[in-house]
Amino acid sequence: MQLRDTSFAAAAAAFLCALSAAPSLAAPLSAEDIMKQNFTISKVADSTQDATFRLINSQGQERIRQTSGQTKLLPGTTDNRRIVVFTAPADIRGTKTLLIEHSGGDDDIWIYLPAMKKVRRLVANNKKDSFVGTDFSYGDVIGYRVDDWNHTLLREEALSGVSCWVIQSTPKSAEVEDISNYSKRISWIDKRSYIAVKTEIYDKEGAYMKRLTQEDVREIDPKNHKWQAMRLTAENVQTGHRTVIELENFKANIGVSDAEFTPSYLEN
Q: What pTM did the predictor assign?
């Protein structure tokens, strides 16, 4: 009887030791892990889409803009290239922007203004500027490198029935803060899609400045588990002005050409 007890104890001890040494498959994700997933979750090989921009002031008056756009990843990377062409109304028709991410250096931003008939290259500090008169900045459109920010998981909670991680992101350096013009971002990350369904943004003085929301989230590439919101809103809570972007005719992984993602193409 004593031998059986000893054998059982030894087997139990060995099992517990092996269990503790094995990697945990259910280990919780860190805030940085979650934000890395969020940063790449909408990046497909390429895409085309049309979009309606609605610029709405605090009195509810609207201006409508129409665009067409394309994206394509740089070969062998997760760096995205994005071109947006404004097609209406007449006062902005022909305006084009080209945004190119570079994970190892400064992102490229070009804008073509038809009245000037030339392409203008913007510097990194322009990322805090308004994206063609909207409430989104160029930085909001390009996205923020995960490694440039400190990320803290504040809590987990449901937002409009969506289970979310709530993550606070603060700049790691004064340069990052200056380029973004943000001192803090608080993001509600959907646990299913990793889309930031809401983000609260604070200016360099620490005041609540802007709210971003993403709705109508769809799985656009089931094979690679990629998701995209079809309705994006940026609201300046200090002025009451907001911009709503509604995507239409979204198509992913259709073989978009590289030829259009160059500054020279903007002048065509």
A: 0.88
One of 3.90.1150.10, 2.50.20.10, 3.20.20.70, 2.60.200.20 is the CATH number of 31-266, namely: 2.50.20.10
**What CA–CA distance (Å, rounded) separates 200 from 168?**
9
Q: Is 69 left (phi over 0), alpha (psi -120 to 50) or beta?
A: beta
Per-residue buried b or exposed e for 177-190, using 16+ beta carbons within 10 Å of the residue's own CB:
bebbbbbbbbbbbb
Which residues lie below 8 Å from residue 221, measured CB to CB, with a gap of 6+?
Answer: 44, 252, 253
Alpha-helix runs per DSSP H in the chain: 2-21, 31-40, 138-142, 174-180, 263-266
pLDDT tens sequence across 116-144? 999 999 998 899 999 999 999 999 999 99
Dist. CA 11–CA 175, nearest whole Å: 57
CA 183, CA 201: separation in Å to the nearest integer? 8
